[in-house]
Amino acid sequence: LLDIRSELKNHRVSFGGVELGKELLLIGGHCTVDPKEPNKYFETAAALKEVGIHALRGGVWKPRTNPYSYQGDVKALDILMEASARTGLPVNAEVMDEEQLDIALDAGVHMLQVGTRNALNYSLLRQIGQKVAGRDTVVLLKRGRHMGPVNEFISAAEYIVTFGNPNVVLCPRGTLPGLEGYRNHPDECITPLLKERTWAPVVADPSHAVGKAMYVESCSMAAVAYGADGLCIESNVDPKNGLGDDPKQAITPEAFGALAKKCRMIWDMR
Ligand code: PEP
Ligand code: MN
């Protein structure tokens, strides 16, 4: 295990025109792309591009804790790809099974997300490694909600790598049990531990770690201070009316721009 460290140590992952490690990668967008509100997503995408974000995120299929919550809709994929075409930015979307993986790859999704709930789904990790092999597609692997910070997390990434796709990015996003007041237990502090053991870049997700818009900036700054190569943040021009997590944790594109400025200053101090 942990060959991820040695065999590919000179491998560099690039996404959104950024070689990870050279410049802070910024990914932003809605938790969930609302198929009934395409213009909202286009508006967010344009506003994020305006403040210098490198790539868009947007959930198509959603892993919801509550089975009665909105579960996603493949129609959202067209909106996501249209936003990519309009802005020229690549896009990230989560896939939860092989069927979704095939659909996302056919549509040309640039970054596949493995969510926290599937971080231990070894058959999905293997499928992603195999099907993405030989493509430029990047995989953002979220840390499992109960996953040990080092061995278990890196081993999950190793599944993707060993089955064929070296373009893997590790994403701390908080763990359970949560820290009272936050949504999860923020875990941006694991980055130095990951960096010691692997060459894989780290893109932190402060949105799901803290779960409240007002704490996203401080968590982002901490993540960069701890050595993150990038940030993936939920952002919406109209957070209050967004689907999924946005009403609680999404920040406006304007706030994202302000946060990015501060984070770049921290980056420059490293
Ligand atoms: C998300 O990115 O919207 C999401 C569901 O993430 P996680 O798997 O980290 O909860
Ligand atoms: Mn979300």
Please provide a written account of the structure.
The protein is an alpha/beta fold. The chain has a single domain (3-269), classed as TIM Barrel. It has eleven helices and ten strands. An eight-stranded parallel β-sheet has the order 8-7-6-5-4-3-10-9. A two-stranded antiparallel sheet has the order 1-2. α3 (75-87) links the parallel β4 and β5 (91-94). 53% of the residues are buried. The structure holds phosphoenolpyruvate and manganese (II) ion (MN). Manganese (II) ion (MN) is lined by residues 31, 208, 234, 244-245. Phosphoenolpyruvate binds next to loops.
Give a quick precis of the structure:
Keywords: Transferase. The protein is an alpha/beta fold.
Number of domains: 1
Which structural class do you get from the secondary structure elements? Answer: alpha/beta
Count of DSSP E strands?
Answer: 10
What is the CA-based Rg, rounded?
17 Å
β-sheet strand percentage: 5-15%
- Overall morphology: globular
- As residue ranges, the low-confidence spans are none
